[in-house]
Design goal:
By secondary structure, the protein is an all-alpha fold. The protein has 15 helices and no strands.
Length: about 425
Amino acid sequence: MKESKPFSYSKIFVIGSGFFALMLVWTFYNAYMPLILGEYIESRAIRGAIMGLDNLLAVLLIPVIGAWSDRLDTKIGNRLPFLVIGMPIAALFFILIPYGATVTLWVLLVVDIVFLFAMTIYRAPVIALMPDHTPSEKRSTANGIINFMGGIGAIVALFGLSTLYGIDRTYPFIVAGLLLLLAFMLLYFTVDRHPPYVGRTDDELEETQAAKSFFHGLRLLKKPEFRGHLFILIAIFLYFIGYTGIEALFTVYAVEYLQMEESAAGFTLGFFSLAFVLFAIPAGLLGSKRGKAPMMLLGLILLPMIFISIPFLPLLDNLFPSMNEVLLLQIILFIGGIAWAFINVQAYPLVADLGGKSKIGFFTGLYYLFSMASAIIAPGLLGLLMDLFTHPALFFGAAASFVIAFLFLRKGSQIIPKTDRKLKIS
């Protein structure tokens, strides 16, 4: 029987290397691509709209590619063909981004679009490799390993690659591209061609869940009995606008408004990610003890206060010239990362609980639908605020999204009866 076949943690770590490279590339891309685009495009709104393109491609194409990889049958299996095409092309065109930027805007955009398509081609199949190689009873542990490696990739991008960016702009793109190629080689020569637990990817892909929910989920949410559920999902949509906007445009604020070096801007943003990785497990434990919604509400109070304080740091620097403004900003972002852990770690488990065991897949799809929809529009929307009201509007807009999200989450959790076991507030 398939379930009796051996399970290898070493293969899970190799698969995790794919997530490490994926997060390394995406995190660095999100931090520095807006700055590169800024050499040709002054408008923060237009730059933000371009940054939302990858999320749009994800929602539109990844479910199709995931389903295709379920049905494909080749000598090297059903997932590897997509990795063979996507990963080397993504690595090559990621390396070419800084070189394309020295030619013309159109060359840069062509390189960028090819890179985004290549990343889209392999994302679903590489995600599916974990469940393909893991029996169901070990998937939680395996998923923890993979997510941890992805978190390390994000930290390395903002601390390590940002340092290289300060030496030469091409270096981090070359290093990240080579690491992506190395991850591809490890995967190609290590993973099974026909894994023992291969199945459909539908339950594993957030984009697939989102696409499914788009067609029938919104109709159901119009019903009065789902009003509380809808409010909670709207809260998630709103606070992801703030988070995604900060992620994509913080470096623009730091470089153009604070006059920081580009490498220092990415390095500083790394403190937010570092805090999230360090406090993800403690936040989860607190959520289990104190309740998921109360911990999210606490984070939704703290984070806007933190964001609103950031634009006032230059004023403090004028009052206290000896103060290290960059260090203080890094400390504030680190505290912000803790608050974000309070919010984000609880969000999916809370939504998954909404419908009980019989509707976990349905509400999972709604969670990804609302969170990914905000990721498509957030960079452009907050970029527009920066265009209209100067750079500090980034943080005021993000803070407003968290405050309004707080109101929706509190209202939603009040509407759904606390005695209803479908929503475990405590």
